[in-house]
UniProtKB/TrEMBL annotation, chain A:
Protein name, entry field: Fumarate reductase subunit C
InterPro entries recorded: Fumarate_red_C (IPR003510), SQR/QFR_C/D (IPR034804)
Pfam families listed in its UniProt record: Fumarate_red_C
Classification lineage: Bacteria, Pseudomonadati, Pseudomonadota, Gammaproteobacteria, Oceanospirillales
Organism: Vreelandella salicampi
Assigned GO CC terms: membrane
TrEMBL record, chain B:
Subcellular location, record wording: Cell membrane
Record HAMAP family: Fumarate_red_D (MF_00709)
GO molecular function per UniProt: succinate dehydrogenase activity
Family under the similarity heading: Belongs to the FrdD family.
Protein known as: Fumarate reductase subunit D
Organism of derivation: Vreelandella salicampi
Length: 131, 131
């Protein structure tokens, strides 16, 4: 194979700091970091539930730690930010047509937010019934 | 497949089928779950109940056990823990690439391997719980 003679500019590690669009892209990538924290919390909760009532109480107290609540609050905001970016992709990846007319993208995004609200109401019913 | 029409016969026969569609599919499915189901899970389990806005009895030991170790509990583990784990793994893998950290084949093993390991732990915990 011939030796590469073309010029390839080297990409620096901080390339994404140079444009607001790339910063937003990296922020979206970073939404999974607090998510992983929350998921690990859930896994620890699952195993403390297996170890008995005392261990479960310990997990509930751990979840009340202000620092844990703060990171989980960040995870909540991150999940909504992710949802906001993710819902905009759906009309582009899979445009829907109803009765020969293209469904307006805004309506599809709105429909997905409606889904989030329905899940929240369902969760409220699951956690608060009988209290 | 149609060997005769292939432009580069020598490589097409040896070409391995890419595993990317699997990771991409898990990433997309996890992205939907992260956007639709995870916000409600964080809001109730990690914010409203620990902050005392909803009575802690909502997650009492007996209640938590009967909720988690059931068919809805298994669905919860799938859509709130396992699929978002693979979504996170995909974003972390590509985030590391963007930051020029680590080696691609190793990053891939560590991120997806980690997601698979934690998912397996969750499912084992569930199996122990229902037995």
């Amino acid at each position: 194979m011939a030796k590469q003679t073309s010029y390839f500019p080297e990409l620096k590690r901080n390339w994404w700091l140079k444009h607001p669009y790339f910063k937003k892209y990296m922020a979206r990538e970073a939404t999974v970091l607090p998510l992983v924290f929350f998921l690990v919390c859930l896994l620890v909760g699952l195993f403390s539930l297996l170890q008995g009532a005392e261990s479960w109480q310990g997990w509930l107290r751990f979840m009340q730690n202000p620092l844990v609540i703060a990171v989980n609050a960040l995870a909540f905001i991150a999940s909504l930010f992710h949802a906001w970016t993710f819902f905009q992709l759906f009309p582009r990846v899979m445009p829907l047509r109803v009765g020969g007319r293209a469904l307006p993208p805004n309506l599809m995004v709105l429909g997905q937010w409606f889904g989030v609200v329905v899940v929240m109401i369902l969760a409220a019913w699951i956690f608060m019934r009988g209290l | 497949m149609n060997k005769g029409t292939s432009l580069n016969n020598d490589t097409s026969e040896n070409m391995k089928r890419s595993d990317e569609p699997i990771w991409w599919g898990l990433f997309s499915a996890g992205g939907v779950c992260f956007a639709v189901f995870v916000p409600a899970a964080i809001l109730f389990i990690a914010l409203l109940i620990p902050a005392g806005i909803i009575a802690p009895e909502a997650l009492s030991f007996d209640r938590a056990r009967s909720m988690l170790f059931s068919l809805p509990g298994l669905i919860f583990i799938g859509v709130v823990i396992c699929l978002p784990l693979f979504h996170a793994a995909h974003r972390i893998r590509h985030g590391l690439h963007d930051l020029k950290l680590g080696k691609e084949h190793l990053n891939k093993r560590v991120t997806y391997g980690g997601a698979a390991l934690l998912s397996a732990l969750a499912l084992v915990g569930f199996a122990v719980g229902i037995l």
